[in-house]
Amino acid sequence: MANDDGPALELVGLTKAFNGTRAADGVSLAVPRGALLGLVGPNGAGKTTSISMAVGLLRPDAGTARVLGVDMWSDPVGAKRLLGVLPDGLSLPERLTGGELLTHWGGLRGLERGLVRERAGELLRVLELEEADDRGVLIAEYSTGMRKKIGLATALLHAPRVLVLDEPYEAVDPVSARVLTAILRRFTDGGGTVVVSSHVMALVEGLADRVAIIARGRVLADGTLDGVRGPDATLEDTFVRLVGAREVGEDELAWLSS
Amino acid sequence: MAVVLIRLKLALMRHSFTGMRVLGLVLALLGAALTWYLAVSSPGPRVRSDLLPLVFAVWAAAWALGPTVANGAGTLRSQYFALLPMDRRRTGALLLVTAFVDLGPALTLVASAALVWHGASLSAGAALVAVPAALLLWVSLISLSRLVFRALGAAMHSRLGMEIASVQWGLFLALIFFGWMAVQPALAATLELRDRGLGEGPTGALLAALPTSWPVHAVDAAGAGAWGSALGWLAATALTSLVLASVTAVLLAPRVTARGVRRRGRPPGARPLSRPARAVLPGTPLGAVVGKELRQWWRDPWRGLEVRASLWAGLFIGLLAWSSDTFSFFAPFAGVICAFIMVLATANMYGHDGTALWLTAVGQGPGTARADVRGRQIAIALLSAPGALALSVLFIVLTGEHWAWPYVLTGLAAVFGAGSGLSLLFSVVALSPGVDPQLRVDANDSGDNQVQVWLSLLSLPVLASPAVLAAVFLGLAGAPWAAVPVGVANGLLGALWLGRIAHRRLDGRLPETFTRIRYGKAVALQAVPEAGSLLDRLERTAISGNEETRPQGS
């Protein structure tokens, strides 16, 4: 069962190699309770691989993850009960409507039917998916942003204590993004913990109180926003300093401005 | 531009040289060799002008069905080029041009050239006519292939189209399983074919009317000196090629409409959350899975195709058997055959769902995997049993063979039960992902399942053998009705036992199962021990044996 102290989510030396290439190489992180952590890194840094191992979608070659002290890989059922997950770019049962998906999902999770109906209705309303549900729009017909939102609803439905969201803001319109931010804030205010991956620095800077920078499968920095940023003016500067950036030279791509 | 696309196609092909392609090439090679053998060895021009129409008709049928049946996601998918600043029709036309560049089409050209040999044996003028005729025939054959492939894909976007595709598939399945019943008398005649040709008769007349025979008529007319008629047939051939090629180019153009927009109104059974219906299914994980599966089966065209094709195949097999004298006793078993095909069609359920398995993986509770497997078994039984039963009743009543009742009921119970366990076991252990559901376009985007099909063909008869033996011996003993409870017990045990192996395996290997879908062959193989249990070995066989039709974009 979940313990009362210690970090909400802990990644311990998570390692995974695909065809000889290490996508994650000893990724360790500790996210304190009530924190909203932004996980940032360039494309192909190993963010999604690390997240997948932390939430039980990908078995690590080495290392483990703990959710409120419950080990994901020795007690998966216990850990998954505490966890809400939004993966990036995966399928859903495409021929269900939003309401049907949430009803199914609540039932599969073993939630009581009346409770599922109440929460699902509220989630659809808050996430502005209610009208699509009334019209019977199938998930296959949803836009990318709507898919993100219904995915978020599945992550929230069973009232988890830790949320892990992979690129939740991608393709979401500004109005919905504000709603999403408000939801996450309410969640952390109530003692919940959130991990959000993104490669938009400004977004993470405005949202998160903690940041972890990951590149080439390793954690380069981890701590409070101010601690990680240090003397740099913006998080982006820190990111560039740690990850390295390729500058575009004067004579390169000159034809673009001709 | 065409050259650029052809280079791209060749580059893509170099990275995906698969067993299925080799098989296709071998068949094309044999076909070309057989075509020339028949052309060269036939005793004279008259027999040859009888045989070539038959040969070309077979080529057309092979090209029309082959690519769809061969489970390929298509090398150059038209959606790759949707953003090119080029007219969509022109993109389609260019894509059609690339279809001609491959070894299969090259061998087909070689086979078509047999027409020139035929012409040369008649006269120099006939040979001259044969050259454009052979080329036009070639264009028609290859265009037809792309046309059928894309038409099936386009059909998947409307309910009627899906139904038409199901009829085609059903007919195709019926023919490969039981076509020999109809062909057998014809087969006996084939032995004399090479020496005498088809002669007079309805088959010859029908063949002569097919557009694939028109180029032969043109050459024959030229050989006879009837130039007007030769040019007429040639013009008709040219027109056919032109129409086929233009329609295909239009179909190959990238789609710019959204998926599923043709549906009007609410999908069947969907009610908004705000106005719920009275719940029929229990509010348990099992009830949730059954509800989800029934909706998906009903609404997903790719799943609908599987169910409908099995029903149509059963119907066609029944009709084939009924219409033949020798095998008409078999017609009452159409429903049992339908149930059998249904098992083959449902042996890749998790591959069908693609990465949507993440929901089960992250929502894993103590009984989630069990509910998921059992719920699918129940949904499949609810969906397919009424159809198979109706087919059985239909054919027993039509043929009046009422002795068949106990045998058919025994067979249905055993095949449905054992088959439901078997298909779920294969769905878990031998799953083979296709193009991820939200990216599907073509009719065979839902994953290759040849390993499952072959293994089911072998193991389902074994699993149903207690019921079959009981039916045979109790039937001989004059008590066929006593076999029905044996069939029911056989089915129930099979469903429970194999389903149990399936859900235990899934429960223990949810992340590995998801990895298979998400990360593809190479990574999946890392996760299965090399010298493991029987199930591990089965899993390795399926991973290496099935073609990878993973998402390549769309």
From TrEMBL, chain A:
Superkingdom per UniProt: Bacteria
Keywords, ordered alphabetically: Antibiotic resistance, ATP-binding, Nucleotide-binding, Transport
CDD domains documented for this protein: ABC_DR_subfamily_A (cd03230)
A Pfam cross-reference name: ABC_tran
Membrane topology according to the record: Peripheral membrane protein
Domain ABC transporter: 9-241
GO terms under cellular component: plasma membrane
Compartment(s): Cell membrane
The keyword Nucleotide-binding appears for this protein: yes
GO process terms (BP): response to antibiotic
Example GO molecular function: ATP binding
Classification via PANTHER family: ABC TRANSPORTER ATP-BINDING PROTEIN, DOXORUBICIN RESISTANCE ATP-BINDING PROTEIN DRRA
The protein, known as: ABC-2 type transport system ATP-binding protein
UniProt source species: Nocardiopsis flavescens
UniProtKB/TrEMBL annotation, chain B:
Record carries keyword Manganese: no
Organism from which the protein derives: Nocardiopsis flavescens
Name of the protein in its database record: ABC-2 type transport system permease protein
Keywords per UniProt: Membrane, Transmembrane, Transmembrane helix
Sequence intervals crossing the membrane: 51-73, 94-118, 124-148, 160-183, 230-253, 305-323, 329-350, 378-398, 404-432, 453-475, 481-499
